[in-house]
Design a protein that fits this description.
Layout: E1 2-5, E2 12-13, E3 27-30, H1 35-40, H2 42-52, E4 55-59, H3 64-67, E5 73-78, H4 87-101, E6 105-108, H5 113-121, E7 126-130, E8 141-143, H6 151-156, H7 175-187, E9 195-198, H8 211-217, E10 222-224, H9 231-240, E11 245-247, H10 254-263, E12 266-270, H11 273-281, E13 285-289, E14 306-309, H12 332-335, H13 339-351
Helix pairs in contact: 7-10, 8-9, 8-13, 10-11
Length: about 350
């Protein structure tokens, strides 16, 4: 096992089939992947806005709050690909909507045939995406995706040569976001500098199961964050030390969760979206990696962050995302990471 520093309002738009003229000649970014991918696309958004002016961004409804107040975003278009916009009917409605906007160019960081087809059918003249994408044949410019480096910089490569090769990953919080986080903490008598924990992940084998044990090894207050699906995991952490631990899982919005992380001393998390949320607000992170590895390009970026992982297992990595169950049935990559190793990483970070 090894513990090491890491390398590193009005904008919301419902889908309305009318020609507002807002997109005419402008730039569109389509990113309908996972929440973490959307956060890591904000560096590309910032660079494109610097070159072309504020851009429109098409994302899923869940991801819309992550880019809604970004200074480089003019308007957010929600594409509910698994809800009201699912199927060929919803896809075609979105095609007509984008076609009516008259965009000059579209950037496609998500290597998805659906989004490639969306941009092509919308007749956007300039379509820029990665050459390794399924729909690369529809692009007018196919960019080689860098094999190494953090995914934020790999995504930034779509913009071509840049003066600053470091992607400016950020979530622009508002005073309302910060006020909501402050009120939540104050109601529980929790001050700044607490330890935040995010025990969940949509990928089963990415979940480290020793958060309750870790809580018992720490002193001071702990705040658990996550979505509604993470409530059961969060309650297990709370039950380990109910006098010191409070859960915002399923209660705090994404933006409020980011504002909570902004006030934390450190976040302990699996390889999941909260890791990137913390990076976007500059919170040092202890990231626990199991079936995936930091070399995939999704490690924490805030200064002082560290990674805890087993480096002596030949079976790692076992997949791009982390399967629901360990293919070999032992899950050693996570089960053999002791809570003491994560505690020690936290203490070293706080001491620095």
């Amino acid at each position: 096992m090894e513990t090491r520093p890491s390398a590193l309002g009005t904008r919301h738009s419902a889908l309305e089939p009318r020609n507002t003229g807002r997109g005419a000649g402008g730039t569109l970014v389509i990113q309908t992947a996972f929440l973490g991918d959307v956060i890591l696309t904000t560096g590309l958004i910032a660079e494109l806005a610097r070159r072309h002016g504020p851009v429109d961004v098409l994302v899923t409804p869940a991801a819309a709050p992550l880019v809604a107040t970004h200074p480089g975003v003019r308007e957010v278009i929600r594409y509910d690909k698994r809800g009201r916009d699912r199927g060929i009917g919803g896809w075609w409605r979105m095609v007509r909507h984008l076609r009516s906007r008259g965009y000059a160019r579209v950037y496609l960081p998500h290597r998805s045939p659906r989004t490639a087809a969306l941009a092509y059918a919308a007749r956007i003249p300039e379509r820029i995406g990665f050459a390794s994408s399924w729909g690369a044949w529809t692009y007018t410019r196919a960019i080689a995706r860098p094999e190494k480096g953090h995914d934020a910089e790999r995504t930034l490569a779509l913009a071509g040569p840049v003066s600053n090769a470091t992607a400016a990953v950020r979530i622009e919080l508002t005073e309302d976001d910060r006020a909501a986080a402050y009120a939540w903490l104050a109601a529980r008598a929790i001050g700044d500098g607490f330890v935040a924990m995010a025990p969940g992940s949509i990928w089963g084998t990415k979940r480290w199961d020793k958060y309750p044990e870790l809580v018992k090894l720490l002193r001071g207050r702990v705040v658990v964050i996550g979505g509604s699906d993470d409530r059961e995991l969060a309650e297990r952490v709370v039950d380990a030390a109910p006098d010191r631990v409070a859960s915002a899982a399923g209660e705090a919005s994404l933006r409020m969760a980011a504002a909570l992380l902004e006030r934390a001393a450190v976040l302990v998390t699996n390889d999941s979206a909260p890791l990137h949320l913390a990076s976007a607000v500059g919170t040092p992170t202890i990231a626990i990696f199991g079936p995936t590895v930091p070399a995939f390009g999704f490690g924490p970026r805030a200064p002082g962050s560290a990674i805890v992982e087993r480096t002596d297992l030949a079976c790692r990595p076992c997949s791009d995302h982390g399967p629901e169950r360990c293919p070999l049935g032992h899950h050693r990559c996570m089960s053999e990471i002791p809570a003491t190793a994560v505690r020690d990483a936290i203490l070293r970070l706080i001491e620095r």
